[in-house]
Amino acid sequence: MKAFKTKKHLGQHLLISEGVIKKIVDEIDVHPEDIIVEIGVGTGQLTEEILKRKPKILYGIEIDKTVYPLIEERLGSYKNFILIKSDFFKVDLKKLSEGKKIKLVGNLPYNVASHILVRAVEEVEIIEGCVFMLQKEVAEKLIAKPSTKSYSFLTVFIQSFYRVKYVMSVPARFFKPPPKVTSAVVKMIPEPKLDTAHIKQYRGFLSRLFSNRRKMIKSKIDSEYIKKARIKETARAEELSVEDFIRIFKVHIEV
Q1: What does the pLDDT read at residue 41?
Q2: 35 pLDDT exceeds 90?
């Protein structure tokens, strides 16, 4: 197999630890009926370990054209593998799901990880679960509590629709080239606390409340909604629980 050169502009860092790869695939919990979608195949180390566990089908999405020959050479013998030569954001996940649920996995490029997480919420109705490798700083946002440094728009948006488990931290030495940051693996199981029909509206609502996070929310939303939701008028977004945000939003859309 030819040597593959990672590309900085695509945020590529290849996971080379077999032990970590196996642990990630253990978390995916592969079954024979599974439809799995992997975001970013790279040179196929994680992909091959998933395929060894024999899912019904594994769709590997890869944007980097230079790696296609390596993927086809390495994984061409697997009949349950389909390479999708595209940008993840242009792929119709509903079409791949065949009316069933999919498992979404991947070592996410650092530069687009948060956008992929937002899409995982937007597609939550067709997702059985997600297992992602992320920058540790992003992973910590996903499990953050109110009034902490990591608590953010992303925290509340994800926790409103998923239960998040922090699986493990992964040091830079397990990658090639080593990134400048520590990574982490998270597992996300859908548990929507809000009607999924309102996802896009809710996203805009949260974004507004988290802008200038140190300002009191009464400067961003009508105090009538705050009172009806039984929230302190002096509260700031960073102090509110996920349940608080959902309560204000429900009042907001009902009025």
Answers
A1: 94
A2: yes
The structure tokens listed for 90 are 């242009």
Burial 56-92 (b: 16+ CB within 10 A, else e): ebbbbbbbbeebeebbeebbeebeebebbeeebeeee
pLDDT (tens digit, 9 = 90+) per residue, 65-74?
999 999 999 9
Specify the domain boundaries for CATH 1.10.8.100 within the chain.
196-254
**Residue-level pLDDT at 13:** 66
CA atoms within 13 A on the CB side of 181: 13
The dihedral formed by the CA atoms of 164, 177, 18 and 105, expressed in degrees to the nearest 10: 30
Domain 196-254 in CATH: superfamily?
rRNA adenine dimethylase, C-terminal domain (1.10.8.100)
What is the rounded average pLDDT for all residues in the chain? Answer: 92
Exposed (0-12), middle (13-18) or buried (19+): which is 145, by Cβ within 10 Å? exposed
CA angle, residues 106, 111, 112, in degrees to nearest 5: 55
Beta bridge partners of 139: none
Q: Structure tokens of 179? A: 């990134």
**E-strand spans in 191-251?**
none
Q: For residue 14, count CB atoms less than 10 angstroms from its CB and return exposed for 0-12, middle for 13-18, buried for 19 or more.
A: middle
The architecture that CATH gives domain 8-190 is 3-Layer(aba) Sandwich (3.40)
Neighbouring CB atoms inside 10 A of 105's CB total 26
Q: Give the residue, 13 or 70, on which the prediction is more confident.
A: 70
Residue labelled with tokens 């992997």: 38
Residues 78, 170, 163, 190, Cα dihedral to 10°: -20
